[in-house]
Design brief:
Layout: E1 3-4, E2 10-14, H1 16-30, E3 37-43, E4 49-51, E5 60-62, E6 66-70, H2 73-78, E7 89-98, H3 101-106, H4 109-126, H5 128-131, E8 139-146, E9 151-162, E10 168-169, E11 174-175, H6 176-179, H7 183-194, H8 198-201, E12 203-208, E13 217-220, H9 225-228, E14 239-245, H10 257-268, E15 274-280, H11 293-299, E16 303-308, E17 320-324, E18 335-338, H12 345-358, H13 370-374, E19 377-381, H14 385-396, E20 401-406, H15 433-444, E21 449-454, H16 469-484, E22 488-491, H17 500-508, E23 512-518, E24 522-527, H18 574-577, H19 585-601, E25 629-633, E26 638-642, H20 655-664, H21 666-674, H22 699-704, H23 706-719
Parallel strand pairs: 2-6, 7-8, 14-15, 19-20, 19-22, 20-21, 22-23
Antiparallel strand pairs: 1-10, 3-7, 4-5, 8-9, 9-17, 9-18, 10-16, 11-16, 12-13, 12-14, 15-16, 23-24, 24-25, 25-26
Helix pairs in contact: 4-10, 7-11, 14-19, 20-21
């Protein structure tokens, strides 16, 4: 058998981000200069893709085009910052970007190919291609960038110095798995490649020793031709091969790079007239870990050819070059990419973010409502460590409206722990945290609607003076407005009392409220229970769930407390003034809180969804039923889900508190802030009529009935007769 050797041509695969780099290059670097610029591309070994049929049809393995990939890294790699894909071969490309569409059309394509072919021959003759094989496979990109319309006209070429008369295949291609004597020899070859950089160069020489079980392969770069390939004498017992990384997945045709490999061979080693060619296609297996021999035989795609090389003296033309890319109809025509709707960097960033989320719907979460998540308006009360991490995860989920509330400034200790700030933010006394956080979010993703509100939240136990009355009233009104205009409220502050007013307002406006708190090595992320209707605020009767069935409302952050929140910030040591916690805890807690929110949003009952049943892994929502409380511990890396019902005596969400605020507004809050004690029987009478109010209990404790509960408990304890006689102990 002897037939003309046919090759599988390259097909370009360009990622959209590359065109953004081209636009930047044109605007900021090249301008009117049309001199060629260097970009980088890469190709890998070709592999067929498995396509599963129905039960009656077996799985088929279909060939895919031999791809040369060009992405955003093409510009960085051209500057020496090479970060190519594992197992890929990097190559230089030469960009010829024109200033007008007419110049693009009139450019002499034949001249570009001939010049490229001449450079390839010069690299071969000078020996540079032997040392750097990628010089054998440059590509050309002729382009015109219409930056007004974001239309990119382009045409790729893959210059190949062709042989006339052509090189001949003297034997039918043999799969590498049948070429070797043992499956273990395939494993040895992969191990040899994985332990060296030879494969990344794209070309190599090899000698296979079938009789050597322990070390059947010797592989090296082209520069070691004499040592490895030699004169291919039979007495050494080995079989010499010239190899290259083959991007083709065709069963019989080698890839385009072999054309210039054979040109190198006929010029540098004319004595090798008939050679074995190893078309190595299994680069994907190099990073796949250990594979047993039987599986490797099934997965191996590489082939071995026997080629008769046309000598230089027999060529009709020494520099005959081809290589312009054909379209799907096999016509030699340029192409156009229309990125007018996505090429703007801001829109491109938005599309990239949405793409990552949309991919979830392909297989993993087909019913997820991404629009609902993106349209959720989040208010973050607290822009510290928890606030920064929570905001980043919300942004990763595609939320576009994120508002920060905080009264602090960025300090020098913040940037290392809080990912929205840098060193510059802490200079000159520090920027206001809320504003700096919002600004950082807009830098990360320009399309986010992020605002920062510098605000000190009024708190129970922190008295309001007469001079502060008007500003406090305005602050309360502003916070009430913020809570009402957002869909979810995250409580992320570092004190208990600062969470009280947002909890009250979130309950009043029936918002999703998620509270996150940290200990040294523990955390809690919980959602607050929601009232379903306005009449549920009345103290009589059990609150109604969203489906109008009688149910117990879930508790809030304060429901398990038997004392009202009060001043916890005064008279504290340095370690008490700071949130002392293990650094890795905040991102865990914040991420858990956001995932709890998305679970709520994807549930048909939303914030009224029942908590997950113990041990259940499913539920009505796309992500199941949302938990009520998640408590985690780094010590032992434990996590527990807890359910707690709302307390009728809660100082933040009970009907008595909500109704007191609805009826008396700021006057009620002022009593809570200043702890103005009143009679339980007439909680809103004037202070001078409150002489009988118990001094040991706060206003909120008196209002909700906690004070009465405490007194009842004290009375019961006083009536218990405690025995101190040994005779009262039962012998065990």
């Amino acid at each position: 058998m002897s037939e003309t050797l046919r090759f599988e041509a390259f097909s370009s695969m360009v990622e959209p981000e590359f065109w953004s780099g081209l636009a930047h290059h044109k605007l900021h670097s090249a301008r009117l200069d049309t001199a060629r610029a260097v970009v980088r591309g890469e190709f890998s070994g070709g592999r067929r893709h498995a396509v599963r049929g129905n039960s009656a049809e077996p799985t088929q393995r279909l060939a895919v085009p031999a791809r040369l990939r060009v992405n955003q890294g093409a510009w960085e790699a051209a500057q020496g910052n090479t970060q190519q894909q594992a197992g890929a071969v990097g190559v230089n490309g030469y960009l010829h970007n024109t200033n007008t569409i007419e110049e693009f059309k009139k450019r002499d394509k034949g001249e570009l190919l001939r010049d490229a072919g001449a450079e390839i021959l010069e690299a071969i003759r000078s020996g540079r291609a032997t040392q750097t094989p990628e010089l054998l496979w440059p590509f050309l990109l002729l382009s015109f960038a219409d930056l007004k319309k974001y239309h990119f006209y382009h045409w790729f070429a893959f210059p190949a110095v062709t042989a006339d008369p052509p090189d001949m295949a003297t034997e039918a291609p043999a799969p590498l798995s049948s070429f070797v004597s043992r499956s273990s020899d395939l494993e040895h070859l992969l191990t040899t490649f994985a332990g060296s950089s030879v494969c990344a160069q794209g070309a190599f020489v090899a000698r296979y020793y079938p009789s050597n079980v322990d070390n059947p392969w010797r592989v090296g770069p082209l520069s070691e031709w004499s040592e490895i390939y030699g004169s291919d004498k039979a007495e050494d017992g080995g079989i010499a091969l010239l190899g290259f990384v083959d991007p083709s997945s065709h069963s019989t045709r080698p890839g385009w790079p072999l054309r210039n490999m054979l040109t190198w061979l006929r010029h540098c080693h004319p004595e090798a007239a008939n050679v074995n060619i190893l078309c190595f296609r299994d680069t994907a297996l190099l990073a796949g870990g250990a594979v047993d021999g039987a599986t490797l035989v099934q997965q191996c795609e590489s082939i071995v050819l026997r080629v008769n090389v046309t000598p230089v003296a027999s060529l009709t033309s020494e520099c005959q070059v081809s290589g312009w890319e054909r379209n799907e109809k096999q016509k030699l025509v340029p192409r156009i990419v229309n990125l007018s709707s996505t090429m703007d960097p801001v829109r491109l960033a938005e599309s990239a973010l949405d793409l990552n989320l949309q991919l979830m719907r392909w297989r993993l979460a087909p019913s997820i409502d991404l629009a609902k998540i993106a349209g959720t308006r989040a208010l973050l009360v607290g822009a510290g460590t928890l606030g920064a991490y929570t905001a980043r995860v919300l942004l990763a989920w595609g939320m576009r409206k994120i508002t920060f509330v905080d009264n602090g400034r960025v300090s020098f200790s913040n940037p290392a722990r809080q990912p929205l700030y840098d060193f510059e933010d802490s200079l000159d006394g520090g920027k206001p945290k809320a504003e700096a956080a919002a600004s950082s979010m807009r830098k990360i993703f320009p399309n986010v609607d992020s605002q920062g509100i510098q605000m000190t939240i009024p708190m129970p136990g922190h008295s309001i003076s007469a001079s502060e009355m008007d500003s406090t009233r305005a602050t309360v009104a502003r916070l009430d407005e913020l809570v009402a205009s957002h869909d979810v409220i995250f409580l992320l502050t570092d004190s208990r009392e600062s969470r009280w007013l947002p909890t009250l307002l979130g309950t009043l406006h029936r918002k999703i409220v998620i509270c996150v708190a940290l200990g040294f090595d523990s955390y809690v992320a919980m959602r607050h229970g929601m009232y379903a209707h306005d009449d549920d605020f009345e103290p009589m009767g059990a609150p109604k769930a969203a489906d109008s069935n009688e149910a117990v409302r879930l508790g809030c952050y304060f429901c398990n407390d038997v004392v009202a929140p009060t001043d916890s910030l005064s008279d504290r040591t340095l370690d008490q003034q700071c949130t002392v916690t293990r650094p890795g805890l905040a991102p865990i807690a914040s991420g858990t809180a956001v995932e709890l929110l998305t679970t709520i949003l994807q549930h048909p009952q939303g914030g009224h969804a029942p908590p997950a049943a113990p041990g259940a892994n499913d539920g009505a929502g796309e992500f199941g039923d949302p938990e009520h409380q998640i408590r985690g511990y780094l010590l032992g890396f434990r996590q527990h889900a807890i359910v707690g019902q709302a307390s009728s005596l809660c100082t933040a969400c009970s009907p008595s508190v909500i109704n007191a605020y609805r009826q008396h507004g700021f006057d009620f809050l002022l009593r809570a802030f200043n702890n103005t004690l009143v009679s339980e029987d007439a909680p809103h009478c004037a202070a001078e009529d409150s002489a009988d109010a118990p001094a040991d209990y706060s206003y909120l404790e008196t209002l909700t009935g906690l004070a009465a509960l405490h007194r009842q408990t004290d009375t019961m304890l006083e009536t218990i007769e405690w025995s101190e006689s040994d005779d009262d102990f039962e012998a065990i």
